[in-house]
Amino acid sequence: MNQTPQVRLPQMREQIIAAVHALSDPDHQRRVWIERQYPHPGYFDDLTLNVHILYDDTAVLDNPSGAIGHTLRDASEAQTMQRLADRLNEILDALDPEADDAAYLGHQLWPGVVEAAAQAHASLTR
Length: 126
Hints:
Layout: H1 10-24, H2 26-34, H3 47-57, H4 75-94, H5 101-106, H6 110-124
């Protein structure tokens, strides 16, 4: 019987999955990040929040391989998260840190972020 490896920090993993999902969903990004159409009162989401979750709060994109067993289950997940980190790092380096979400979403590198996030989300939720 093949069991899925467990992680020590499942709640943190849930935050990672939610952030990766937001990065993979252009409709959500346009509706929530740009148009500020939130699904309910008290809700907030934007690019900065998701970047902070992935880099600062969980540090999963700083060292995906080091997150195996903590928030990632295996090397396959770490590889997809590394691809996401590579794409995000490219666009973060290309734009001014003070650029708004619309500048990121309109940048030529953004589709690569969305694609890498979609692949990472699929891996994390398989």
